[in-house]
Amino acid sequence: MTNTDLSFDEREISNELDVPVLVINDLVALGHAFNVDDSSVLKPIGESDAIRSNETRAIACAGTGLGMAIFPSHKKGRGVVPSEGGHVRIATVDAYERELVDAAEQELGLQAVTWEHFLSGPDSSTYTVPLRRLGK
Q1: Does the global pTM surpass 0.90?
Q2: Residue 119 is part of which domain span?
């Protein structure tokens, strides 16, 4: 249902089906599936090779959108928090990156492009246009 105008109401669905209904973000569902301390399915990113059960974790998934979820650790275990991290505007660090982002904004007719525009969904080929335009 990413990037659509579809809307619905949990209560209406619950009343129609006569069962409890809870609608959750797709990455929250995926997060609950991966919210484990099993080192055979978890791989650390960075210098450490250790998986620590008390540390905050995150998951990102590129598809029709760029979904993200965070797993903060707390006394009762670990929760799953949805995020709209894919909607974060791209921050550039040098002139070359600024050129790429400017070209993508022109191509898409937007005032700001986000990570979702570059990494997922129907605009995921966005980065090739500025590269061609800049002759890179």
Answers
A1: no
A2: 88-133
3-state DSSP call for residue 133? Answer: helix
Tokens of 21: 């209904």
Angstrom CA distances, 56 to 12, 69, 122, stand at 35, 11, 31
Which residue, chain included where needed, has tokens 């809307």?
Answer: 7
Residue 52 lies in a domain: yes
Specify whether 59 is located in the same domain as 106.
no
pLDDT of 126 reads 61
Strand intervals (E) in the chain? 57-62, 66-71, 73-74, 77-78, 81-83
Confidence label for 95 from pLDDT (cuts 50, 70 and 90): very high
- Which residue did the predictor score with more confidence, 117 or 136? 117
What single-letter amino acid sits at 2? Answer: T
In whole angstroms, how far apart are CA 115 and each of 34, 47, 53, 73, 125? 23, 25, 29, 26, 12
The structural domain count of the chain equals 2
Q: What is the pLDDT of residue 13?
A: 94
125 and 95: one domain? yes
